[in-house]
Design brief:
about 300 residues, alpha/beta, six-stranded mixed beta sheet, four-stranded antiparallel beta sheet, 15 strands, about 30% helix
Length: about 300
């Protein structure tokens, strides 16, 4: 083999190795979610018209569905939160509208029915069906006195349940219950439209779910990661090596992130000090501040 051939072969090997190292990893598998209009079991109702284009041309006539605001608005809020999760796709509303117009799935509000929604989700390639229910919207009036005034306060509460279902098996993946509450003075409550008051409290309840990443991840079938907690390690004197379960984590004082409820072994070492060691549960000891004692002098050889 000539020198040129050897060099050429080495270059090819180097290029192959470089390609294997820099190749883009395939994207993680995604789940596709269909979120249905919420079922509204409360006494609060607010019917609005929902228009759907019958063709791509905006000048063509539209088909109108009548929907409950408290069914459609919570659905839109939840959809938006889910689209922000990595690896989650939400079935676009336009695709649902198109299928409703072209098929015998029935009225738009019929998607509240679990069987109808599951069939549509399967046809649209969804793997998870998410259904919500507005269980109640209630008002409680209380007298309020303070700061030299006396008035009444209206406490408005809402309760919402959201659950996710594996379309292939029909099994429930997760179920979440959230509540929301708003307080109004008599003048505020009397001056606001009932529909706006109900919407505000439904939104407050749903925000407790949409701002909870752990709960959202559970809905799409992802096991929740163990809770983590920051623990401050500040021994006296400082300068100790910190070992957690035998693994070096740095020199104290230091803040380390540990599983909140799992027992860990914390060990502090310094050559001139007696090692300190404890088994503990991090959430019970957010600050570790032991005092280490000098190491016993080495025995003098005779």
């Amino acid at each position: 083999m000539s020198g040129f051939q050897r060099v050429h072969g080495v270059c090819l090997l180097l290029l192959a190795s470089l390609f294997s190292l820099t190749a883009v990893e395939p994207a993680p598998a995604s789940v596709t979610v269909l979120v249905t209009p919420f079922e509204n079991q409360s006494t609060a109702k607010s019917m609005v018209a929902y228009e759907v284009a019958t063709a791509a041309d905006p000048s063509q006539p539209k088909r109108s569905f009548t929907v409950d605001r408290y069914s459609e608005a919570p659905r839109a809020i939840l959809e938006q939160a889910l689209t922000e999760l990595t690896g989650v796709r939400v079935v676009e509303r336009q695709r649902i509208d198109a299928m409703l117009l072209e098929s015998d799935f029935g009225a738009y509000s019929g998607l509240v029915d679990g069987n109808t929604a599951a069939k549509m989700g399967n046809a649209l390639g969804a793997t998870i069906l998410i259904q919500g229910t507005v269980l109640s919207v209630s008002v409680e009036t209380k007298a309020f006195a303070g700061y030299g005034i006396q008035t009444e306060r209206a406490i408005v509460s809402a309760s919402i349940r959201v659950r996710s279902i594996d379309i292939a098996t029909g099994t429930v993946i997760a179920s979440q219950m959230v509540t929301g509450q708003k307080a109004y003075t008599a003048s505020q409550f009397g001056g606001a439209a009932e529909s706006d008051v109900a919407y505000a409290v439904i939104d407050a309840a749903l925000q407790r779910l949409t701002t909870n990443q752990k709960a959202l991840r559970a809905l799409v079938g992802e096991p929740s990661a163990p809770n983590q907690i920051s623990v401050r390690i500040e021994p006296t004197p400082p300068g100790c090596d910190v070992l957690i379960d035998g693994i070096y984590r740095g020199t104290a004082p230091i803040t380390v992130t540990l599983p909140a409820t799992a027992q860990v072994l914390v060990r502090l070492e310094r050559t001139d000090l007696t090692p300190w060691e404890r088994r503990l549960i991090p959430e019970q000891v957010p600050v570790i501040a032991p005092m280490l004692v000098p190491a016993a002098p080495a025995p003098v050889a005779p």
